[in-house]
Amino acid sequence: MIARIAGEDRAAFLDLYDATSAKLFGVCLRVLKDRGESEDVLQDVFIKVWKNAGRYNVNGLSPMTWLITIARNAAIDRLRARKTPAEGGEALDRLQDAAPGPEAQAVAASEAREVVRCLGTLDDDRAAAVRGAYLDGETYQTLAARFDVPLNTMRTWLRRSLQKLRECLDG
Known about the structure:
Layout: H1 2-6, H2 10-32, H3 35-52, H4 63-82, H5 90-95, H6 102-119, H7 124-134, H8 140-146, H9 151-170
Helix pairs in contact: 2-3, 2-4, 3-4, 6-9, 7-9, 8-9
């Protein structure tokens, strides 16, 4: 139906509306908790579907997943628009957890161990300079003074150390 809608087939659009509007309305209502706003957002959703049906890409996701994503995003946009900055962001905080999930945490821990291992392959002063510049936010000038080397030497240390780190991490 979406492919036919992309060709501006009004009958396909009506069939899609009949088949999906109740489910998409439920998605909007769950986010907004307001029937009137949910009806308005649902209308916006179907306008977006009509205008963007040609952008739908069959990539393993079902058409219903695509439609639900459009509805949910539209409802969240409406929710954000009605919130004033003075109001708390508790409702928005419940919608999406910004913290990484268990899989992302495991990957990050593995990557961190690899970076620490590669830092260990650098000379002690070079590793300390890299940590100072990229983990502690120290300026090149501060590092040059701390290690008693000219500024351009510090830049060279850091550039070469990063190259060695990249080679270690890629290898």
